[in-house]
């Protein structure tokens, strides 16, 4: 039986390939005019969590922007955002102090914020769907 499914059009940012290989996932996949970006966390170069929450959020956005840039776009191309926060009652205000640094001008993308109990040692994760401008 022949596989008729097209291969995934995977987008890799510069570096960090070992992280994706080790954990067996793609950083982003293009499909039908959209870019589906895996959840990005604020990891240090060795993959461990950045200990400071604000810096962790900044690193997550920096990692996200590297993937968007590798796809030929930017955060302006993002149409849908999902954020995951450990203990949002105590972390939301701190996280949301950083978000405007990266969010850009209105109109803003849609967003869903989810409180979770565990993120592999991280406190914040962001995943997005982007369109247009992706080349």
Automatic annotation (TrEMBL):
Gene Ontology MF terms: deaminase activity
CDD domains membership: YjgH_like (cd02198)
Highest taxon, organism lineage: Bacteria
Record's GO cellular component terms: cytosol
PANTHER family: 2-IMINOBUTANOATE/2-IMINOPROPANOATE DEAMINASE RIDA, RUTC FAMILY PROTEIN YJGH
Protein name: RidA family protein
């Amino acid at each position: 039986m022949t596989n008729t499914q097209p291969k995934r059009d995977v987008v890799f940012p510069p570096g960090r390939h070992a992280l994706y290989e080790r954990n067996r996932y793609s950083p982003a996949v293009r499909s039908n005019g959209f870019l589906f970006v895996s959840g990005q966390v604020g990891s240090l170069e060795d993959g461990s969590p950045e200990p400071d929450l604000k810096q962790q959020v900044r690193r997550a956005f920096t990692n996200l922007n590297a993937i968007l840039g590798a796809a030929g776009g930017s955060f302006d191309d993002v149409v849908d955002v999902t954020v995951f926060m450990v203990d949002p009652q105590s972390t939301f205000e701190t996280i949301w102090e950083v978000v405007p640094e990266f969010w850009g001008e209105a109109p803003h993308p849609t967003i869903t914020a989810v409180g979770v109990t565990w993120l592999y040692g991280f406190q914040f994760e962001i995943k997005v769907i982007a369109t247009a401008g992706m080349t």
